[in-house]
Amino acid sequence: RYVDAYQEGLMQLLDLSYVRHTAVSRCSSFWVGQARDWLPKEIGGVLWYGLNSPANSPFIPLYLGADEIPESYMVLNRDRMDYNSAWWAYARVDDMVNRRYQEYKPRLHEELLDPMQEYWFTMQDAVEGKALELYENHGADSTKAFLTTYSKSQMEWAEQSYWDYFDELYFSLTGGY
Description:
The chain is mainly alpha-helical and 177 residues long. 56% of the residues lie in helices and 10% in strands. The protein is built from five helices and three strands. Strands 1-2-3 form a three-stranded antiparallel sheet.
């Protein structure tokens, strides 16, 4: 295990014996929680969730009010390729990007990952505004149904986008043959 002198000193200062990096090949899932107590809990709690490595996979908004996710996000068998598992969509793109990092990493960000993340950040106010309107006028059940549909559809869109993007990368790798 390689640790440079600065990191070694920092680890000693903080009395740490191990550093856990965030973007490792053995990562299955990752998340960042967003909690806002001024909103109803169904709306204020968002798990920005992803599969595989956070270096090459999106942080997808999964609202606390959502009560269902796509089946493919509940399936993970890393021992064999499984087209019914969303994890494999992200893992395949991650593997391809890491094989031709200089070429594919900037391309992934420009063509897919950054626009996807920007879209979700841009949509957040509108989605939460509609969810709050539903909450105030129709109650928590309507809000949950709306946020379930939104979160689930974004997870499905991201997964399908990654299955398709792998095909694009593979096609460019083979020179179109």
